[in-house]
Amino acid sequence: MSSRRSDGFGLLAWYPPAWRERYGDEFGALMEDTLGDGPPTPRFRLSVAWAGLRERGHESGVIGSTIPAAARTRSGSVLVLCAWAVFVVAGSSFAKLAEGFRKTVPAGTRALSSDAYRTVIVVGVIGSLLVLSGIVIALPTFLRFLRVGGWHSIRGHVLRAVAATIVAIMAMVALVAVARTLTPAQRGGELLYHPVVWYYLVEFTVTVLLLAVMLALWTVAAVATVRRLDFPRYVLSAEAVLAIAVTAAMLLMTAATALWWGVIASSAPWFLQGVRAGSAASALNPQIIGTMVLMLLAIIVAGYGVSRVARLGRRAAVQI
Q: Which one of 1, 44, 86, 158 is most buried, by most CB atoms within 10 A?
């Protein structure tokens, strides 16, 4: 296969399969007319990639206003699901960072920071239950999909997610075994008095990355599955309401996290840096900054998803 022909196939991969099947020959002719015997320029590659991604967005219902309302609702709910997966990672980071904060926060501000922390935890549980409710509501449609042979189209996604889950569980078991060799202070990372043992830090980092990969693969599997399901209107209406509720939960959790950060920054900044209580320290901890950035990105994605489902969701809420 010639280099130019290989480039053509590579660029064509940016487009969805249905588009490639319908317009693949015309795309090849365009390549020849535009490029001649020369290779694609970086600008040409970028323009094709952008056009292909836009086409994928239109096909999936993520962008565009001419697609049916049902498709917009389904794609918007999927975006909220993806945003929730990102938010779970951010929430886990916050929970790890906040371990033991009550011991170092002055008594005068302990109640406010504790209330903010509890809000994140409680609303996180509620958000998880809302997501689980969406899965339960979609389950009958999913089972019908499997009965008509749908497993073959999602098998690869699910098997990759299962393999990642097995590896992540093994890593978690190893992490627990390593943690038992350390004191609570060493596991908590109180750097001044009990430096974190390097092998625990490595194991913890690897486990977190594996859990993130597992979550990402299950999200991809869920998205691939939902795109193939034909939901009844009442299911779409319920999913729209749940998507709006999950987004509201993310907003509340982000506000509570920001409040917690503000209280700790003003009353116990040393906690964020892992130094002796009362020491001068910066409140700009990289982990809390990264956590907030992830939360805000998730809210932006979820907000766009809600904009795709809001009309149907409001109609369903009125009916309920």
A: 86
Stronger pLDDT, 240 or 24, i.e. the higher one: 240
> Do residues 163 and 177 lie in contact, with contact meaning Cβ atoms separated by under 8 Å?
no
CA atoms in the 13 A half-sphere facing the CB of 101: 28
Give the closest residue to 189 by CA, choosing from 257, 98, 269: 98
314: its two tokens? 């409001």
pTM of the predicted protein model: 0.79
Q: What is the dihedral of CA 106, 109, 110, 114, to 10 degrees?
A: -150
Give the span between the Cα atoms of 280 and 215, in whole angstroms. Answer: 38
Dump pLDDT digits (tens) for 99-133.
888 887 888 888 999 999 999 999 999 999 999 99
CATH class of 72-150+230-320: mainly alpha
**pLDDT at 284 exceeding the cut of 60:** yes
CA distance 53 to 41: 18
* Residue recorded with tokens 């917690």: 260
What are the boundaries of each domain within the chain?
3-52, 72-150+230-320, 151-227
Give pLDDT, residue 317. 43
One-letter amino acid at 144 equals: R
Taking the C-alpha atoms of residue 320 and residue 311, their distance in angstroms, rounded to an integer, is: 14
